[in-house]
Amino acid sequence: MQENTPTSRAQEWKAFLFIAVVLFPLLSIILVGGYGFAIWFLQMLMGPPGHG
Amino acid sequence: MKNTVRRFWQIVSKPSVHLSFGFLTMGGFIAGIIFWGGFNTALEATNTEEFCIGCHEMHDNVYVELQETIHWQNRSGVRATCPDCHVPHNWTDKIARKMQASKEVWGAIFGTIDTREKFLAKRGELAQHEWDRLTANNSLECKNCHNYDSMDFNMMSERARVQMKMAAERDQSCIDCHKGIAHHLPENMNSGDGMLAKLEAMATSGYQVGQAYYSVRQLPMFTDSTLTTEAGQLNAATKVTILDVKGDAIQIEIDAWRKTKGFGRVLFEDFAMNINDGYLTKEVAQSDQYMQQGESKEDDLTGLPWQKVAVTLWLRNGSLTDSRDRLWQFAKTTYDTSCSVCHTQPAEAHFDTNTWPGMFNGMLSFVNLDGDTQALVLKYLQKHSSDFADGAH
Questions:
Q1: Closest to B169 in 3D by CA, of B177, B161, B179
Q2: What 3 state SS string does B260-296 have?
Q3: Which burial class, exposed, middle or buried, applies to B379 when counting CB atoms under 10 A from its CB (0-12, 13-18, 19+)?
């Protein structure tokens, strides 16, 4: 695996599948989960959500 | 490992050599659709009753209790499942609640409430969380199904009608009154069961015209002797003078004060003292037909103008007593037992009349007193406050 080795078709496929099936879904879940946690912590500081 | 990551970065940070632009976009798009579908499916799957009662803590405690209530079975065949009431429906709050459930996962793993005894010991705290949440959002989850505008007040009992109409006017939070309707109340909470009957039992019969009596509980008032048009609600332990008795109806006069700012709907027992005597509907409060207006005075402390009024309205016969002391005895017993659950209750004369409502309301969420008993106990405290007690500070 050298710096300038040209990428093969198989490597690109592997990278694509890894991103689309594992990495990005995982990141999305972490992002949404983190958002949820952030809201929860805010609620602990500022009280439960009110009504509008 | 480090090499693999570097190599991976090299590949993904450059334009692809073998895979076409269209293919990558399409591939990412399709993967996104599949992910989003899966995400929502998982979200929905964790939002079912089956999932909730998957652990025995929920199944053996709260789920069993729900089955005794109207939210489980009723004549119209609509029922509420766990998430209907306990998971917010709007997306952001829902996600926050889902994350909050990590605490429940923790509890399930470490057995925080894995026996009935542990659950019962913690019930008060857990219930308080839900009450706080519903208080803050004005009972949003109840109102997702129940709507003040869709209520047919005519199908309610007389007592419920007056209370619900007043609650509707203020868009009151359901949980203010309806606690313990889907699950049992925490053990040390004084259940309101039978209180009303105890109050009613204190009523005397055979009223004399011209005599003064006291209401044993909150009573609906009407503008006429046929008891059809509501005029408001008389508070508990309020002094009324009987003017006329006509079969089922009695005509009463209430000597009270009101603040003349706003509609002047709230009646108070004494000048500049917030001792509630009852409420009038907007129509009655603004009409001269039902009241005689007396002197006006300004309260130096608040700068509010007060006015003496004599209000004449009709009540359903019954529910009055000639002895206010009996009511006070009952109120004192309730105060002593309910409020000593958590702490030594302060002496009645420890606060003044206008301080008691704030103190009392601040403590209400820790006990379960029905509206009538609440009103009675508060009035008892106010009438025995430092303003009325000799030698108190």
A1: B161
A2: CCCCCCEEEEECCEEEEEEEECHHHHCCCCCEEEEEE
A3: buried
B17, B31, B97: residue with CB nearest A20: B31
Could you report the per-residue pLDDT of B93-119, keeping only the tens digit for each?
999 999 999 999 999 999 999 999 999
- pTM exceeds cut of 0.80: no
- Nearest Cα of chain A lies from the Cα of B5 at a distance, in angstroms, of 11
**Chain B residues with CB-CB distance to A29 below 8 A:** 39
What distance in Å separates the CA atoms of residue B285 and residue B267, rounded to the nearest whole number? 10
Which of B257, B255, B352 lies closest to B298 in space, CA to CA? B257
Question: Is B133 in CB contact (< 8 Å) with chain A?
Answer: yes
- Nearest Cα residue in chain A from B36: A25
Among chain B residues, CA nearest to A26: B35
Q: Which two tokens stand for residue B121?
A: 């010991």
First to last CA, chain B: 77
- Which residue from B167, B166, B199, B220 is spatially nearest to B380, judged by alpha carbons? B199
B144-157 pLDDT, tens digit per residue, is 999 999 999 999 98
Which residue of B11, B95, B136 is in closest CB contact with A39? B95
**Chain A contacts in chain B segment 26-65 (CB below 8 A):** 27-28, 31, 35, 39
Those residues whose C-beta lies under 8 Å from the C-beta of residue A5, and which sit 6 or more positions away, are none
